[in-house]
Amino acid sequence: MSEPNSSDVNSSQSNLILVAGATGGVGQLVVAKLLAQNYSVRILTRNEDKARNMFGDRVEIKVGNILEPATFNEPDALGEALQGVSQLICCTGTTAFPSLRWDFTNLWQPINTPRAVDGEGIKNLVTAASSDLARFVFVSSCGVLRKDKFPFKLLNAFGVLDAKLEGEQAIKNSGIPYTIIRPGRLIDGPFTSYDLNTLFQAKTDGKKAVVLGTKDTLNGETSRIDVANACVECLNYSTTINQTFELVNTGNKSTPTNWEQLFAQL
After folding, report:
1. For 89-107, what is the mean pLDDT?
2. How far apart are CA 182 and CA 48, in angstroms?
3. Verdict on whether the full-model pTM lies above 0.85
4. Cα–Cα distances in Å, from 178 out to 33, 77, 174, 234, 241?
5. Boundaries of domain holding 107
6. Hey, which of 22, 104, 119, 122 would disulfide with 27, CB 3.0 to 4.6 Å?
């Protein structure tokens, strides 16, 4: 990891960071990296037992559901989870195509659809977030501006890119400083899909080089490892404030990723 320069922000690492979607593939890696850099971490989860088994007492756990705005003002729910938080990293998401993760408790009205999680859920987080929040980091997706082109037209068959773009716009319109990261097709563990989506997983152990782009022009695969790295590293650089960028992996990584150099391109 490169050392932050004189224009970096949040260098004290004393701020409290909330991670939403912490038990997901990218979220687990984000939490691990934050802890390795001695940040104070709070996580927002719907499943306290799962989170406790995963992180133990290394993080502060708050139970809440971004799909239920009514919980925002209840004690020990989302409203409390956001109190005192200086930065928010949002790694929430669901599968782009119907899967068990959509929760078909009601067969005709699944709960965890892309529209609900990536659209309405993000809007709910924005509504609950303090205007004093120093940064809202959001993991979106490549292709949100190319929904009419292949392969993104296929990917958006059930509205995942529509929802991601709605989430992006809600964050940008909020006035909260933001960094929006648009990865390509996610590869590398930890894998959290136990359905058809698992057939499309690949493993590189984060050994491919990182390429950043803007204006939604890139396409390819992206290691969850590097998405998590970008989520945490961007907090150290003012050049990433109010920036939206794509991130893909290509070619072999010959040297450690120089995030300062990559972010300077923005």
Report:
1. 89
2. 28
3. yes
4. 20, 23, 9, 10, 6
5. 16-264
6. 22
